[in-house]
Amino acid sequence: MKRTELNLAERRKIEDLLHRKVKVAEIARQINRHRATVYREIKRNFFKDEELPQLNGYYGMLAQKSAADRRARRRKLVRIPELREAVIGRLQEGWSPEQIAGRLKLEGHATTVSHETIYAYVYSPDGQSQALARYLPERRKKRKPRYSRTPRGMMFPLERSIHNRPEYIKERSTFGEWEGDLMIFRREHGKANVASLVERKTRFAVLFRNNDRSSKHFMAKLMNVMEPLPQIARRSITFDRGIEFSGWRKLESGIGTSAWFCDPQAPWQKGSVENLNKRARRYLPRDTPIAALSNRDMKAICDRLNGTPRKCLGWRTPTEAFAEELRKLG
Hints:
Blueprint (H helix, E strand, L loop, with lengths): L7 H12 L4 H7 L4 H10 L1 E2 L9 E2 L1 H15 L1 H4 L1 H12 L4 H10 L8 H8 L2 H5 L22 H4 L11 H4 L6 E7 L9 E7 L5 E6 L4 H12 L9 E4 L8 H8 L2 E4 L9 H10 L14 H12 L11 H12 L1
Parallel strand pairs: 3-6, 6-7
Antiparallel strand pairs: 1-2, 3-4, 4-5
């Protein structure tokens, strides 16, 4: 079983070896830990006393107590039912952990909690048993340690922000500019989900089933769906910053379709696909067993959505508007 936190015996060994002026790399070798673990342990738990600097140093027992205190703080949501219920209630209302933590402080609660603690609880066995991750704006299979996560700026660089997207896309003046999203369903029905796409000018909708939420799987399926269209009919797609869209570079290199991304937690910036999702939920409620739906079933839903006259299209249907744009391409 993989070890994580140091135990008291290891901390006492570190204290003893530091007192004997042994180098950190050798200490790590002797306790069979990575040297980075030992460096981090010493830095985190180094005792300092401004009045008695001669007492400064690393002490195994103090380090063990500090570690226990940190664990206790992380366990606030287990120990305090009232706090736990307040947090879970707001998660279910769609609040993000950061919003919950900030609001608790503003309201002057006797006991507050950080957003990192909320995330840790959501991805803990207790939180997983309650399926709390489904309420997060952006869901993952598990929570990575805070300082080992890939910065979102690397996944979704600034130059791909919706604020740098050409103005003509916003104005819906060109054909082939899409928005994309994922529709999520009840956990008991498995990992299957539905990808939703809408062409901004014609409001033409495409829905297809995914059996996995991984970015690699999603992008491969998306490319298969979009590639038969002429290049000019698939110029770009605007997504949110969900982890399933992090493989966008494959979309560009594979079929030449540009990707743009909304601001964090700003789904209204891709309002066309959000509107499509609301209409599609009439036929695909959250308790739908998606894995049981055939491709023919999905096509029938798309045909119904695309066959409905739209006021914004002068009462034409999205199917008619899309076909007209394709004819113009000659």
